Amino acid sequence: MPSPEPEIKNHIRRFRFDHGEMTQDQLAKQAGVTRHTIMALEAGKYFPSLLLAFRIARAFGAPVEQVFEYVEQIPDLPPR
Amino acid sequence: MSDSEKWAWWAIGVVVLIIAAYGAFVAFLGHGPATSAVFALFALTAFPASSRRHLQGRTLDERERAIASKALRAGFSAFWVAFVGLVLAIGFIKGWDTTLTVPVWALEETLWWAATLVLGVQALTTILLYRGGPHA
Question: What is the pTM of this model?
């Protein structure tokens, strides 16, 4: 049985909210990407490069591990 | 909608227009060298400003570059499959030791159709990837 792929979750939406309702456009400009990429990141449709992850974290003034979270999904083992 | 998506929709429109115009040419004028003129419609792909920005890569960020790269790879993969399929089909249908005489316009049209295939698959893949897979 193939094991589920690990995921990188992010808390961009919450961080934007905590930073005075920062718009996706404002964050996109600070991170040097398009608003569509921010939308894709928030929707979990795109995993960013390390460089972009650091840029986004810097825009929020937070460490990268607070904005992005590595989630390893452990597969359910069948009962013996 | 990003420039790349606009380009992709426009490119699909151009491909559909080429197919329709080709069909009309063949229906009214018959199959011949004149039908190749239809492929001049390819010039339309560079017509909108968003397409020019996309083709120059001016507005692409890392996700868009990744999508553009995957889409181009999909286009050339389709070309490769079609190329191998055509070579095998000609060999099996006509015979491997047969001598074929092909007019230059027919050869050129084959190349134009290959370009149409690459463009169509590239544009379609671009749209699908923007609609989102987890790694788009």
Answer: 0.78
Strands, DSSP E only, in chain A?
7-10, 68-71
Give the total residue count for chain B: 136
How far is B104 from A78, CA to CA, in rounded Å?
A: 64
B41/B15 Cα distance (integer angstroms): 9
- Give B5→chain A minimum CA distance, Å: 11
Q: Is residue A31 part of a domain?
A: yes
Instruction: Write the pLDDT tens digit of every residue in B11-62.
Output: 999 999 999 999 999 998 888 888 888 999 988 888 777 767 666 666 678 9
From chain B, pick out residues whose CB is under 8 angstroms from the CB of A34: 2, 59, 61, 63-64
- What would the pLDDT profile of B89-124 be if each residue is shown by its tens digit? 999 999 999 998 989 999 999 999 999 999 999 999
CA distance B102 to B98: 12
Phi, psi of A52 (to 5 degrees): -65, -40
Q: At what angle do helices B3-29 and B49-56 cross, to 10 degrees?
A: 110
* pLDDT for the residue B136: 53
Count of domains in chain A?
1
Q: What is the ipTM of this complex?
A: 0.73
Residue A80 lies in a domain: no
Rounded to whole angstroms, the Cα distance separating B83 from B99 reads 19
User: Which of A33, A34, A46 is closest, CB to CB, to B136?
Assistant: A46
The boundaries of the domain holding residue A56 are: 18-71
